[in-house]
Amino acid sequence: MRYTPRYLMTDPEEVRRLIRGNPWATFVSPASTGLVASHYPVLLEEDAEQITILSHFGRPDDELHELGRHEILVIIQGPHDYISSSWYSPGDVVPTWNHLTAHLYGTPELLGEEENYAMLGRLTDHFEARRDGGRSLSEDPAGTRRLARGTVGLRMRVDRFDARAKLSQNKTDRVRDNIAAHVAVHNPALAGEMDRVLPASDGAPS
Fold this sequence. Notes:
Layout: H1 12-21, E1 24-31, E2 34-41, E3 43-44, E4 52-58, H2 61-64, E5 72-83, E6 96-106, E7 109-110, H3 113-128, H4 141-148, E8 151-157, E9 160-166, H5 173-186, H6 188-197
Antiparallel strand pairs: 1-2, 1-5, 3-4, 4-8, 5-6, 6-9, 7-8
Helix pairs in contact: 5-6
């Protein structure tokens, strides 16, 4: 990503927060046949000192990615949206796109069959806990174990990350407040991130 110091997200806790809130990830591998990309949910391993994610690949994606043989890139995309220059001060006519994005780098460790099944149970429980009448793999262990054999679990310790929170930090407080107000109408998640990083002000220039 473009290096712009004001947008850098360097705090690992902020990256963890982004992963928790945006668990649908893009996995990119430099396989011997060329670049390969797939999309899977991730779960943050909360008790790990280093940022660590858990996930699974459906077969044969693991072979296409040559999973475990090299470093991969995992992209976490948070709230994002087009920012119209009509929300700027007169004379400022170049629009942009606000976003929160993290690039995570590491070499995945493949999980054994039992650890993979336990991870799939954790992943399912994590998302089902948000639903009324949530289900569990334990309701049908024989059937879910059979299906789990079609997946390959992974744990990836993040060796390094490159993250950005581009949220109109280059604008005056008055303009930022106006942008956030417009964004809140159709993208409250992004507006919330702007308010969190750039609290509403009295309109004085920054």
